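Entry details:
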Amino acid sequence: MFKKLIFGLILLSFGTHIEAKMSRLKDLVDVKGVRKNPIVGYGLVVGLNGTGDGGGEVTNTSLKRMFQKLGLNPQNEISSKNVAAVIVTAELPSFSRVGQKMDVKVSSIGDASSLAGGTLLITPLKGGDGNVYAVANGSISIGGLENGKKFATTGLIPQGAVVERELQLDFDKKKSLRLALKSPDFTTAARIEKTINQELGGKYAIAKDSNTVDIIVPIQYQRKIVQLLAIIENFKVHTDRIAKIIINERTGTIVAGGDITVEAVAISHGGLNIQVNNKKKDGDDGNIRLVDKTTTLNDLVKSLNALGATPEDLISIFQALKRNGALVGEIELI
């Protein structure tokens, strides 16, 4: 008996006509120089209930050095299952100030089985330039009961790091700004340029390429960059996107935009038959579905679903349609 499956298919469509979406500029672009900066450090987690590294050379050496810094000089070899060596990571915002707190992630690098209940000792966090920008410590949280069992060697310390050094940015003195599109597209870049110039009332923006829009700071906003960006980031722009299908063959999940179209074609896959812009011939069985010419992928999927297609069938059909040239859009396998 044929077992009907629930498809892992998401169609981002509400009809055959897709209108360009209006999006705020802040959701479309990043401002050059305004980003999170990764910082990292090596530390020790103590207070584990026998779930630490125990016997690891790196951990034991680090533990011995820690005692020496505290003025202790143990003569015997140190080994404890209550200690784990970890890597500590965080993201330092561009405009962080000294004393500001931020979350940190703690990950085991030894053979510890769990960081649950542990406390991170004071750990300096450095940037790519070798400078210490923050110091982290505190009690580790590994989430709820089920998540804790699955990912017990990774945890978080909410507000566990304190900023000790600020990034040197003369942001307010800038005479120009550069916007980088999160999803590069020539059409969207041109629309951003047009919108900014219309709203500011002058030729201040220019789209350099599909990824970049440069802005000359108007005289009235010089040394008022924050106010300028607060205005610009709320401008709304019609966005455009490439027609694309994302396929995960391992899970059978398909994500497709509703603006993807299918040209005239006949499909025969196993016991499934679909004809796009073809008349039904005498003798065809009832397993043939007719679909109008230049239909959307949404309509095609509905017809395939009605015939009992599985996710594997859909993936094979989409790939064949693309090779045939009947599917207007890109296919990306993940």
